[in-house]
Amino acid sequence: MTTKTPMDHTTGTTRAPAGTAPIIPLPTTAARATTAAGSALALAGTFLAWTWTEEFPGNLTVTGYPGGLQVLTLVGAALTLLLTLAGHGIRGLRWLTPGGTNSPVRLAALGVLATTGYAMGAISYELGGLVNLEPGAWLSGTGALLAVIGALGLPADQPHDPDAPAPGLRGRIRHSLTAPDPGHPEELPSWAEILVIAAGFGIGLYVFAYGIGTEYSELFIGFLITAGFGFTAVTRAGLLKRLSALTAKHRNVALTAAFAAAICFPFTQTNDQFALIGANILIFATVALGLNVVVGLAGLLDLGYVAFLGVGAYAAALVSGSPQSTIGVHFPFWAAVLTGAAASLVFGVVIGAPTLRLRGDYLAIVTLGFGEIFRITMNNLNGNSGPDVTNGSNGIPNIPDLEIFGFNLGLPHDVLGHELTRSGNYYLLMLLFTAIVVLVFRRSAESRIGRAWVAIREDETAATAMGINGFRLKLLAFALGASLAGLAGTVQAHVSYSVTPEQYQFAGSVPPNSAFLLAAVILGGMGTISGPLVGAALLYLIPAKLQFMAEYQLLLFGIALMLLMRFRPEGLVADRRKQLEFHETGQLDVPEDEPLPEGTTGVAKAGT
After folding, report:
1. CA distance 220 to 209
2. pTM
3. CA angle 468, 370, 492 (to 5 degrees)
4. Fewest Cβ atoms nearer than 10 Å: which of 191, 341, 399, 511?
5. CA distance 413 to 80
6. What is the DSSP string of 245-290?
7. Which residues 6+ apart lie within 8 Å of 209 measured at CB?
8. How far apart are CA 193 and CA 589, in angstroms?
9. Choice among 163-172, 227-236, 504-513, 530-539 with the minimum mean pLDDT
10. Where would I find the beta strands (DSSP E) of 329-411?
11. What are phi and psi of 116, to 5 degrees?
C-alpha cells in the first residue's frame, strides 16, 4: 500500500508523515529557501579574503580569486545549492536527485559547515585568535550555518514504492519533463551511457589527483571532510547507484574507462613524490586484491599475508643483480617476476597444506605465526645465526632499476611533451600488473571455482555435503592469493631500492603489514574488485599525507574501524549479498504471524 503525504494547507507545502518530522520545524518552502540562501552566501564569501596575512598556507588574502580551503568551501556550497534547486523542481536539475531530494542536501550542507568551520578554526589556531579572520570567512561561516539550519528543517525523504507500475508511454514523456522516477529511470542511448561512465571516471580521477596533490596538511584534512560528506550526499541522491547500474551494464567499457583514467594519473602530477604515492598505492592495492581471494571469496582469515609479499620481494631482490645479493645473479625482468610469483606460490602451498585443515580462529593464529616466523627467519639468515642468504637486518639494498626492452624505468622520459619520472614509470608498470590481477580475480570469481569458494565461505559443512572438496579448493585459493602477492612484491622491491625484514610485520604505523592489508579488504568491501582498491588507497594515502599524526595513527586507525563496523559493516563498496546480510532487506512477501487455531496441540512456532 502507498502512503500519501499529507498537505499542510496553512503553508501550501507537504508535511512529513509521522516519524519523519524535520529536526528544526520549518515549512518546507521556507527551509529550502533558507538552505539556498545560505549556500549562496557561503559561495560568495569564498571570493573575499579570509585572512590578512600569507602566513597561513594557501594565500587566503586575495579577493576575487579563491584558493586553498576556500576552493573546498566553494565546491561544497555549489553542490549544496545545486541539490537544493534540484529538490525544488528546477527543470534541468532534477536528474541530480533520483534517489532522494532532502537527505543529500542535509549532508552537503553539513559538509560545507564542517569544512568552513575547520578552516576558520585552523586560521585562528595558527595565527593566534579570531581577530585574524577577515569578513569573507565570517560571511562563508554564517552562510554555511544558515544552510544547515534550513537543511535540518527539510522533511525526510519518502521511500519509493517498488511495486508501483511503470507509467505508460505518454505518461513517461510527461514525467520526464516534470520529475525523475527513481524506480523506473529513463534509459539513455548506449553512446550517452558510455559518455556518462567516462565522465564519472574522469571526475573520480580529478578528485583522486587533487587529494594526492595537496601540498600541506590543512588542505588535505579539508579535502577529506569535503570528499567524505560530498560522497555520502551523492550516494544518498542516487547518482552512484545509477552509475553502478551503467557500469554493470557496460562492464567492459567501465573497466576500460577505469584503466584509461588510471593511466592519465602520472601525467597530472608535477611532483615526483606524489607519483610515488600513487605507485605504492597500486602495489598495496594489488596485494589487498590478492588477499581478497583468500578472505573475501574463500572466507579464510589470513593474518600473515604480508609474508607472501616479502617472499616475492626477497626472491626478486636476490636475482636482481644487486651487489649485496648473496646469489650474485641477474635475471631479466620477466624471469625475476616469475621467480617472485613462483616462490610465493610454493610457500603458499607449503604453508597451506598442513594448516588449512583448521578453521576459524585456529587458522588465524597459525597464519599469524607464519608471518612472524618469516620475518624472524629473514632476520636470522645473516651468516651468524644461520646461512648467509638475506644479510639479516641489513636486508638487500642497492637493487637496480628495471630495464624492459631497452626502456630504463629509473630514468625520466618525455612522453607526449610531458616528463614521466621514475615514479611514474613504476606506476604504469604496476598498473599493468594490477590489470592482470583484476582479470585473474574477476575470472576466478565468476567461474565454478569462485562459486565453490563462496559456498565454502558461507557454510563449509553444507558445501562439503554437496560434493565440494573444501580442502583442495581452500589450498587453491591460498596458493593463488600468495602468487598474486609475490607478483606485486617483485615491483615493490625495485621501487623501494631495498628489502628488509622490518618491512613485513603484522601491525605497524607504516605499511605494508598484515593488519593494514586485512583492514583494506574489510574497509573497501570483501568479495568485490573495486573495494580493496579503494580501501588500500585510503589507508595508504591518509598516513602518507598526515605524517604529523604518526604517533596517534594506530589509535585513529582503530577508531575508524570501530565506526566502520558500526555504521557500514559491509564496507565502502559492497556487493548485493553483503548488503542483504548486514541490513534490513525490506522484503514484502514475508508472511505475517498468525495465531494457531483453537484446539491445535503438539505444534510449536519457530522463534517462540
Report:
1. 12
2. 0.77
3. 100
4. 191
5. 43
6. HHHHHTHHHHHHHHHHHHHHGGGG---HHHHHHHHHHHHHHHHHHH
7. 265, 268, 269
8. 34
9. 163-172
10. 403-404, 407-408
11. -65, -40
Collapse the DSSP code of 366 into the 3-class scheme (helix H, G, I; strand E, B; otherwise coil) and give the result.
Answer: helix
Long-range contacts (CB closer than 8 Å, 24 or more residues apart) made by 453-458: 453/293, 453/297, 453/298, 453/299, 453/477, 454/297, 454/527, 456/298, 456/299, 457/297, 457/298, 457/299, 458/299
Assess contact for 306 and 514: CB atoms under 8 A: yes
180 touches 167 (CB < 8 A): no
DSSP run (H or E) holding 415: strand 413-415
Report the distance separating Cα 409 and Cα 516, nearest Å: 28
Per-residue pLDDT averaged across 552-573, rounded? 77
Q: Which residue has the cell 543529500?
A: 104
Angle (CA) 350-363-281 rounded to 5° is 80
- d(Cα 315, Cα 153) in Å, to the nearest integer? 62
> What gap in Å lies between CA 389 and CA 380, rounded to an integer?
9
Burial classification of residue 555, based on how many CB atoms lie within 10 Å of its CB (0-12 exposed, 13-18 middle, 19 or more buried):
exposed
What rounded mean pLDDT belongs to the chain? 80
Closest listed residue to residue 586, CA positions, set 159, 4, 241, 101: 159
The length of the chain is: 608
Peptide bond into 512 cis (omega under 30): yes
Q: In this model, does residue 588 exceed pLDDT 70?
A: no
Instruction: Give the dihedral of Cα atoms 28, 33, 35, 41; nearest 10 deg.
Output: -170
Residue 407: strand, helix, or coil: strand
CA dist., res. 13 & res. 36, Å (int): 17
Distance between CA atoms of residues 183 and 180, nearest Å:
9
3-state secondary structure of 133: strand
